[in-house]
Structure formats: C-alpha cells, structure tokens
Amino acid sequence: MAAKKIVLTFPKSKIDKPIVYKLIKDYDLVFNIMKASITPDQEGHMVLELSGEPGHIDRGIQFLKEQGVRVEPLSKEIKVDWDKCVQCGACVAICPTGALYVKDRKTMEVVFDPEKCIACELCIRPCPPRAIKVHF
Amino acid sequence: MAKTIAEINEKIKKGQAVVVNAEEIIEIVARKGAAQAAKEVDVVTTGTFGPMCSSGAYFNFGHTKPKIKAGGGTALLNGVPAYTGWAAVDLYIGATALPDDDPRNKIHPGEFAYGGSHVIEALVAGQDVRLEVAAYGTDCYPRKHLDTWINLKDLNEAVLFNTRNAYQNYNVAVNLSHKTIYTYLGTLKPDLGNANYCSAGQLSPLLNDPFLKTIGLGTRIWLGGGVGYVAWQGTQFNPQAPRSENGVPKRPAQTLAVIGDLKQMKARWLKGVSFVGYGTTLNVGIGVPIPLLNEEIARYVSVRDEEVQCAVVDYSEAYPQGKPEVLGEVNYAQLKSGEIEVKGKKVPAAGLSSYKNALVIANDLKEQIKKGEFLLTEKVADLPAEKAPPFKPLNERPVKEAK
Predict the structure, then answer these.
(1) ipTM for the complex?
(2) What global pTM score does this model have?
(3) Any idea what DSSP says for residue B306?
(4) Which residues of B touch A (CB under 8 A)?
(5) What pLDDT digit, counting tens, does each position of A97-135 carry?
(6) In chain B, at which end, N or C, are there fewer CB atoms within 10 A of the end residue's CB?
(7) What domains appear along chain A, each with residue ranges and CATH number?
C-alpha cells in the first residue's frame, strides 16, 4: 500500500461531471477528501489523499489528467520552529485535523503530526510566537 | 513543628534542603498528610509561563556627547515608541507598544507582527537594537537627534519591571456569537467553537499560596530565567474575589508587580508574542519558591487541578461590555483534558499558558535551591490581602464640551 496527497483543479466544464468516484470503482483506490471547494461556473479545487497499490495510484492520476483535471502534488508543507514555540495551545484549538495536538495530558506537550496536516494554514496567524511557517 | 525561613536557608546553604515542585508535593501530601509533609519538605517550587501584557523594561542608555534629553521628546526602539517622560536618557518600553505605522486593526484582524515585547526579547537575546531619539534641545542638553545601535550589555541599568504578572487564576474565554473573534485569549471560533484558558493551575505560583502567607513585598523569585523580586502587589489586585472552600480564588484575583535585572535574563523566558486582531504581549516566565513553614502551607501547596475552579466567560459580549455574567465554572483538570462542557455543548479547550514550560521553570528553580544557588527571603511586608480596597471599574464622568 502506498499513499499520496494531491491537489486537483477541475476546469469549469468538468465540475458538474462525476469523476473522482471512478478512482474507487475502476482503480481500486481509497481516497480521503481533505479539502474541497466547488463553486458553480468556476473552477473546483480538491485536496485528496489517495491510498492503494502504487501502480493503481499512477493509473488513477493518469485517468484524472485525461479527464482534463490538473493534478499537482500537495507540496505545501507546514513546519513548526520548536525554538520559537512557547508550548501554549493556541494552535491546538484551531487545527481542524488534529495535526497539532497535545500528546500527553500530564505534560501538556504540544506536538505536530505532518501526516495529519492538510496545509490549510489556519494555524499560522493564531500562533502567538509565529512559530509556524508554510514552505513551498 | 513550625520552621522558619532562616532555618530553611541554613539547610539550603548546606545542600540539605528537601525541595520538590508543586506537582510532586500533591502526591506527598496525599500519602503522608500535610503535617508530615511540612516536616519532611522544606520548599515547594511553582512556575508559570504565559502572556502577561502589563510587562515592560526600563533602562538608561548613557549620555551622548553633546548631551540629549529624551524626556519630553520621542524615542523609538526598532521603530517601536518608548516612554520618554523621565530625565535625559532613561526609557521605558512596554510590551504592547506598537510602531506608529503599524496598521493595527485597519484590516481586521491585524497581524501585530512586532511590538515592544519583541524589542525586549531582542535586547535580552543580545541583538543590537536601533534607538532613535528626537528632542527639543535645551542649554544643558543641546542635541536634538540621535540614531544609533544599542546593545543590552552596554546599557547602564536595564530592568524588567512588570506591573501586573502571575494572575491568581483567570477566565476561560469562549465565543457565543456567530462569527470568529480575536482576543487576548486567542482566536475564538463562533458558537462555542473552542475555549481558551490561561493559568498553570496546580503549578501556578499564587494558586499555591492563596492568601499570600509566604509571598510578599521583597520575595525573591525566578524571573525571566534570572533572579527577580516582588516589588508590590500587581495592579487590579483583588483578594476579595470569591473563593472555594480550600481558599483558592475562583476568579481572577491577586497579582504581582515584579522587578529584576534584565541583563541576567534569557530570551527563552521573555518572548515577544502576537495575538492576531489584538496586539503584542510578552510571554513571561516566573517561578516562586514557597517555604513549607507549617502544616497549613503544606495544605495550600497540595492544591490539585481539580480543586481550582474558574469561570467561563463569553468574550463576544459579557467581557467587552463589562457584564458580570459567567456561563459556568470548570476546573483545571477538566480544562487540561482538552474538553469542557458549556451550555450543554462539548467544547474543545486549550491553554495559552504553557504547562510544560511552567514545569521546566519549577524544576529549574528546584535545582537552583537544591544546589544552594537560590536562597529564600523573608517578606519585607504583607501585600494588602483582605485590607485591599475593592478592585473597581472606572466611575466615568463624561466631560461636556464648553459651548
């Protein structure tokens, strides 16, 4: 099993067509929709985490491209500067996926799990010491 | 049998003092009882590391040739205005001061990327800081302009002087409105989306000495990674706040004004921070040693998170409008579990005061005392306690424009 996070951009002409379900049906892939915004008559955007056999993932991505969907790797990466971090919990309250979380309720240590991060950037501004940065 | 601070200090000097932190004493008192704990343990160390807005530093930057009088003029430190209303070359920089050209909340919520607290952190970190002074010039102080780099090591006196720190308990902030709000207690999501609190609970200095039996004027403390002293009661000092049966206040109550030599402090423990939509403030680290003089004090320091109640307050309406309503009471064990219940809804809770770093401070102070490097002090005078005048809001008397 392999996993890959991708960013999809659907052209205006495609947003009313069912596409991503075929990843399950025809390519035997599991996907988790991490973020989606589709506005009628405009572009649609979606962040997916795909998991399945590596060959299936590649063929599934090829299928999406053939449908006119732009596929890019999720290359935005959130990094925490632990020297700047004051170990408060301001980000924990804001993080929608639990990527920033309190590891142990006795020590109250705040940690970051990049695997769970969807790079939504909601944590950047509420961080009081501004210890969280986006890297492209 | 009661102990004295002098006796404890003798043991500290010999490296024989028994010192534990405010977390460790809980179990000791539970196991052996307060009377026995008071016999066996000499000092309990507390700690807190959180945003404390009424903080700042003053310093004397040395006379120039020819001389300049900043007093009555203006001064900027890395672009942040410092207070000049003193003699020639003394300045005070407050944590919440902002550059004149900072856009504030013109585009709400503002960033507040840099302010007085960041200047203090830069100074303590040993960085060069730009000082610009504009003066009006006098016969004795003829110079009118100064633009120079300064560094903490070259300043004459540099003193951290915070007028309100170490709040004994604090509100839990929530948002009942339908839009996100931006407060000094962090970003609060609409419709009870989250709850933010700000106290180290069972480690917090003043929660371990609820009636200030041992902490008073002149008490030596761990401040910003160096040594400091209690200078006075803090502003908004309110010992009359309602208390639980164990004596611990259930609302924001007593505070400390603290002072100490900035030159021996560390940037890790004086951190400039920015609250989006609110402003800048300084994260201050404070540790207070509590001598276990008798059984009563042993009982106080054994306070546990579940025994400290605090009020949940709506920061969209009740707090800004000065209304007294609270939405309920919760304790710090509930808050630290990460979820509380407010108005029947489960609300995720997060702390702005760092428990992890509070423990680092309490342990650092513990080690210093064990090694004989930090001696305790007798307080010079009590802080006012029950005799304090009530903490009151402004009696506003609007000025009518003359016609």
Answers:
(1) 0.94
(2) 0.89
(3) G
(4) 49-51, 109, 111, 113, 186-187, 189, 194-196, 271-276, 281, 283, 336-338, 348-357, 359
(5) 999 999 999 999 999 999 999 889 999 999 999 999 987
(6) C
(7) 2-73 (3.30.70.260), 77-135 (3.30.70.20)
